[in-house]
Amino acid sequence: MTWHRFFRTINLMTRWEYKVLKLETESSFFTGTEFDESELESELNHLGAEGWELVSIFSVEKVKGGSKYVSAALKRPL
User: Fold this and answer.
1) Is residue 54 within 8 Å of residue 74, measured between CB atoms?
2) Which residues pair with 58 in a beta bridge?
3) b vs e for 4-40, b when ≥16 Cβ sit within 10 Å of the residue's Cβ?
4) pTM here?
5) Under DSSP, is residue 2 helix (H, G, I), strand (E, B) or coil?
6) What's the pLDDT tens digit per position in 21-69?
7) How far is residue 20's CA from residue 24's CA, in Å, rounded to a whole number?
8) Strand (E) positions, 1-78?
9) Is the pLDDT of residue 74 over 80?
10) Which one, of 17, 28, 31, 25, lies nearest residue 58 by Cα?
11) What CA–CA distance (Å, rounded) separates 14 from 60?
Protein backbone atom coordinates (compact mmCIF):
# COMPACT_ATOMS: atom_id res chain seq x y z
CA MET A 1 0.00 0.00 0.00
CA THR A 2 1.37 3.41 -0.95
CA TRP A 3 1.44 6.31 1.52
CA HIS A 4 -1.06 8.22 -0.60
CA ARG A 5 -3.54 5.35 -0.48
CA PHE A 6 -2.92 4.84 3.24
CA PHE A 7 -3.71 8.48 4.13
CA ARG A 8 -6.73 8.51 1.83
CA THR A 9 -8.05 5.43 3.66
CA ILE A 10 -7.58 7.14 7.05
CA ASN A 11 -9.49 10.22 5.84
CA LEU A 12 -12.44 8.02 4.80
CA MET A 13 -12.78 6.45 8.25
CA THR A 14 -15.83 7.55 10.21
CA ARG A 15 -15.13 9.88 13.11
CA TRP A 16 -17.45 9.68 16.10
CA GLU A 17 -18.79 11.98 18.78
CA TYR A 18 -19.71 10.30 22.09
CA LYS A 19 -22.21 11.07 24.85
CA VAL A 20 -22.87 9.37 28.21
CA LEU A 21 -26.36 9.57 29.65
CA LYS A 22 -26.58 8.97 33.42
CA LEU A 23 -29.98 8.28 34.99
CA GLU A 24 -30.52 7.96 38.73
CA THR A 25 -32.59 5.12 40.16
CA GLU A 26 -34.92 5.44 43.13
CA SER A 27 -34.49 3.49 46.35
CA SER A 28 -37.16 0.98 47.32
CA PHE A 29 -37.51 -0.95 50.57
CA PHE A 30 -38.11 -4.32 48.89
CA THR A 31 -35.98 -4.21 45.75
CA GLY A 32 -33.11 -1.91 46.73
CA THR A 33 -33.59 0.28 43.67
CA GLU A 34 -36.28 0.93 41.07
CA PHE A 35 -35.81 2.24 37.56
CA ASP A 36 -38.25 4.09 35.32
CA GLU A 37 -37.77 2.51 31.87
CA SER A 38 -40.16 5.00 30.28
CA GLU A 39 -37.81 7.88 31.18
CA LEU A 40 -34.90 6.08 29.51
CA GLU A 41 -37.00 5.19 26.45
CA SER A 42 -38.16 8.78 26.06
CA GLU A 43 -34.61 10.15 26.33
CA LEU A 44 -33.23 7.54 23.88
CA ASN A 45 -35.98 8.35 21.35
CA HIS A 46 -35.20 12.07 21.68
CA LEU A 47 -31.46 11.50 21.20
CA GLY A 48 -32.07 9.01 18.38
CA ALA A 49 -33.97 11.70 16.50
CA GLU A 50 -30.81 13.84 16.81
CA GLY A 51 -28.68 11.09 15.23
CA TRP A 52 -27.36 9.40 18.39
CA GLU A 53 -27.04 5.60 18.43
CA LEU A 54 -27.04 3.56 21.66
CA VAL A 55 -23.77 1.62 21.99
CA SER A 56 -23.97 0.21 25.52
CA ILE A 57 -25.99 0.45 28.70
CA PHE A 58 -24.76 -0.52 32.15
CA SER A 59 -25.33 0.04 35.86
CA VAL A 60 -22.85 1.88 38.06
CA GLU A 61 -22.36 2.59 41.77
CA LYS A 62 -24.00 -0.54 43.12
CA VAL A 63 -25.73 -0.17 46.50
CA LYS A 64 -27.86 -2.61 48.52
CA GLY A 65 -28.04 -5.15 45.71
CA GLY A 66 -29.18 -2.55 43.17
CA SER A 67 -27.68 0.25 41.11
CA LYS A 68 -27.68 3.91 42.05
CA TYR A 69 -27.30 4.96 38.41
CA VAL A 70 -27.86 3.51 34.96
CA SER A 71 -25.52 4.88 32.27
CA ALA A 72 -25.97 4.70 28.53
CA ALA A 73 -23.14 5.31 26.04
CA LEU A 74 -24.15 6.76 22.67
CA LYS A 75 -22.32 7.78 19.51
CA ARG A 76 -23.01 9.64 16.26
CA PRO A 77 -20.86 10.47 13.27
CA LEU A 78 -19.18 13.88 13.19
Assistant:
1) yes
2) 71
3) eeeeeeeeeeeeeeeeebebebeeeeeeebebeeeeb
4) 0.68
5) coil
6) 888 777 655 455 566 788 888 989 999 999 999 999 887 766 666 677 7
7) 13
8) 16-24, 26-28, 32-34, 53-63, 66-77
9) yes
10) 25
11) 29
